[in-house]
Design brief:
Bound molecules: iron/sulfur cluster
Structural class: mainly alpha
Largest sheet: 2 strands, antiparallel
Radius of gyration: 23 Å
Helix content: 55-70%
Shape: globular
Number of helices: 21
Distance between the termini: 17 Å
Strand order of the largest sheet: 1-2
């Protein structure tokens, strides 16, 4: 489809306002890049401490003012409704030159963030005034990262809200991820640091944040943090053992993956321009089934081994369990969730991590598939087979195939983002909660249904195989 449409690249000329706002953003970003380069050349970042404000303010005004202005020029004055916004003419959004440049830049940022943080000395010092105001300390690479992450969720959340303003679900959901990112994943953890308490991210739980359940002296920093740490451990345990299953039963995994989680929040805001790049092939579906549960097994094993090691007094297993811990941290925590998960947005789509790697998504997905009231209902008689829904499904689900057969979508991988429904011109798809019993065949015999599901590709993939 992409090749076919890209042959008629008669794009509208950008308005003067859009060119001015683009110019301001580029100027701000260039200044920001200068802050990387100066310390490499001179060996020092001469703007540390409060003095950094004289550089931070103009950079923030230019980049954010230009960026927000640019978003306004995109959508202000346009009618609410479904827009393809020249997506399939854009090199940035269709793995053209700019798409590759963006992918390489994102990936390079993650590589230096995890393994060469000294490269970030300039921008880290730039954040000193903000860090000192909130945490009482100088900034480090994680403060820089958290701040950039939050700003991106908020700014691209604004874009998301404008783009999908015809759909109430998208407006509320975007407000929710922005709220949780700003409050629970940025402000509160950094205030806790000011109080010398552990940096606790109340929106992340085991197994997505495995160190919250690691034992004392084996990376379990909450267990090592006295009474306040113990309270945090108890909150985490209640969230994963009680609150999570209950909410997933009533609303599916969307309550977490598309409303609360920071990884989902970034994917749904910064990642939205690339959601159509998700691989819809049967091969991708086969890889997804293996890889996501392999990561879940990996984290369960790692946690189990560490506790066994703790119980045995580190006498037997220390090499093995610590090996598991450090390999999990390197392979999954850094390389997969960060470098590939976000770095590859412009190349593989916005939910690579959520679809192929996140152990929390795996756990919630299993429950959503078999023990939840959530489903997407389809009114196939209205479907005109435009394919918008399948194109924009970030999880690679062939939504159209379900719509055409009037079957409920109850896939484990569906994150309930609701974009398929938001881009459907015929109102075919509805995200609903209802009795578990009528969601799928053998719902009254879940074990039979699970065994059947193991050997059977889901509807869309079955159709592709037949074709
Ligand atoms: S099926 Fe719809 S709600 Fe589910 S992940 Fe795909 S686009 Fe989102
Ligand atoms: S369900 Fe809606 S978006 Fe999907 S193919 Fe049918 S009409 Fe198009």
């Amino acid at each position: 489809m992409a090749t076919e449409i890209a042959m008629s690249p008669d794009l509208p000329t950008p308005s003067l306002a859009r060119r001015i706002t683009s110019g301001l953003t580029v100027l701000g970003l260039t200044l920001f890049l200068v802050t990387f380069v100066v310390p490499w050349v001179t060996g020092t970042a001469p703007w540390g401490g409060l003095g950094a404000l004289s550089l931070l303010v103009p950079i923030a005004v230019l980049t954010l003012g230009g960026g927000i202005g640019w978003i306004l020029t995109l959508y202000l004055g346009t009618d609410p409704g479904i827009k393809n916004d020249n997506t399939f003419f854009s090199g940035l959004q269709l793995r053209g030159l700019w798409g590759w440049i963006a992918g390489i830049a994102f990936t390079a940022f993650y590589v230096v963030l995890y393994w060469f943080p000294a490269v970030l000395e300039g921008p880290i010092r730039l954040m000193d005034p903000v860090a000192m105001a909130i945490t009482g300390h100088q900034a480090d690479q994680w403060f820089l990262y958290g701040t950039l992450y939050t700003v991106l969720v908020l700014v691209f959340g604004l874009r998301m809200a404008y783009r999908y303003r015809h759909n109430r679900y998208q407006l509320i959901r975007t407000g929710s991820v922005s709220f949780f990112q700003l409050g629970f994943a940025w402000l509160i953890p950094h205030f806790l640091a000011r109080l010398h308490a552990p940096e606790y991210y109340a929106t992340y739980f085991w197994p997505l944040k495995p160190e919250y359940a690691y034992p004392p002296a084996h990376g379990g920093y909450l267990f090592d943090a006295g009474v306040i740490g113990t309270v945090m451990v108890v909150i985490s345990a209640v969230m994963i053992l009680v609150v999570t299953p209950v909410l997933t039963y009533f609303y599916g995994k969307r309550w977490y993956c598309s409303w609360v989680c920071g990884c989902g929040g970034l994917a749904e805001t910064l990642g939205d321009p690339w959601r159509h790049l998700s691989d819809k092939s049967v091969t991708a579906w086969r890889i997804e089934r293996i890889s996501i549960y392999a990561v879940l097994v990996f984290v369960v094993l790692t946690t189990g081994l560490l506790w066994l090691d703790w119980a045995l007094g580190s006498a037997v297993l220390s090499g093995v369990s610590e090996g598991f811990r450090s390999w999990y941290g390197f392979l999954i925590g850094a390389a997969f969730s960060g470098v590939i998960g976000v770095g590859f947005y412009p190349l593989l789509g916005s939910r690579v991590w959520c679809r192929f790697g996140c152990p929390m998504a795996a756990l919630l997905g299993l429950q959503q598939r078999f023990f939840s009231r959530f489903r997407i209902t389809t009114n196939g008689g209205q479907c005109i087979s435009c394919g918008n829904c399948s194109t924009y499904c970030e999880m690679g689900i062939d939504v159209r195939a379900y719509a055409q057969r009037e079957e409920n979508i109850i896939r484990a991988s569906c994150v309930g983002c609701g974009i398929c429904a938001a881009v459907c011109p015929r109102g075919v798809l509805k995200l609903e909660n209802g009795p578990v019993g009528d969601r799928y065949d053998h719902a009254d015999k879940p074990l039979t249904a699970i065994l059947e599901a193991l050997g059977q590709p889901p509807l869309g993939e079955l159709r592709s195989r037949e074709e």
